[in-house]
Amino acid sequence: MKISIDKSGRIVIPKIVRQHLGLRTGSILQLIEHEREIILKIIENEPLLQHKNGIVVFTGKAVDDATFAMKTIKNKRSKKVVTHKKRNRLIQTTNKKNRLGEILTTLEPLEEDFPPIDDL
Questions:
Q1: Are 3 and 17 in contact (CB under 8 A)?
Q2: For 112, how many CA atoms within 13 A lie in the half-sphere containing its CB?
Q3: According to the model, what pLDDT value does residue 74 have?
Q4: DSSP of 2-25, one letter per residue?
Q5: Are 39 and 31 in contact (CB under 8 A)?
Q6: Could you tell me the pLDDT band of residue 33, with boundaries at 50, 70 and 90?
Q7: What per-residue confidence (pLDDT) applies to 48?
Q8: Nearest Cα residue to 21 out of 3, 47, 2, 39
Q9: In terms of DSSP H, where are the helices of the chain?
Q10: 50-104 pLDDT, tens per residue?
Q11: CA atoms of 120 and 110, how far apart (whole Å)
């Protein structure tokens, strides 16, 4: 995997590598220079969730606005619920139409002759 250095001498560790290694904002790395190689070693990588007094506690730092994240998740869930309800209504309507069609096709025509309206 190739990466480049920007004007300020910074490099970006690709997201897939950060996720795989559990790196996040504030992770501490050790830089080792060896001949023509640069080696980065993870010094500190505490788990984001830790047990404290019998309770699981998030010890990481929020990288975004939590309110915005919750609203986004809520909107996605709401859309799924609405889509699911619409699909169920469509299925129910189709089933009702199919049942009505079955009933109408099974009805036998009336055998009785009705007198013309003028004769009444």
A1: no
A2: 3
A3: 82
A4: -----TTS-----HHHHHHHT--T
A5: yes
A6: very high
A7: 72
A8: 47
A9: 15-21, 66-106
A10: 888 888 887 776 666 777 778 888 888 777 777 777 777 777 777 777 777 666 6
A11: 20
75: exposed, middle or buried (C-beta count within 10 Å: 0-12, 13-18, 19+)? Answer: exposed
Residues found in the chain: 120
pLDDT exceeds 60 at position 120 = no
Q: How is residue 84 written in tokens?
A: 């699911």
Question: 102-119: per-residue pLDDT in tens?
Answer: 666 666 555 555 566 665
Q: Is the pTM value of this prediction over 0.85? A: no
Q: Judge contact between 27 and 44, C-beta under 8 A.
A: yes
Total Cβ atoms within 10 A of residue 40? 13
Domain residue ranges in the chain = 10-63, 64-107
What does DSSP assign to residue 53?
T
CA distance 91 to 97: 10
- Distance, CA of 113 to CA of 7 (rounded, Å): 97
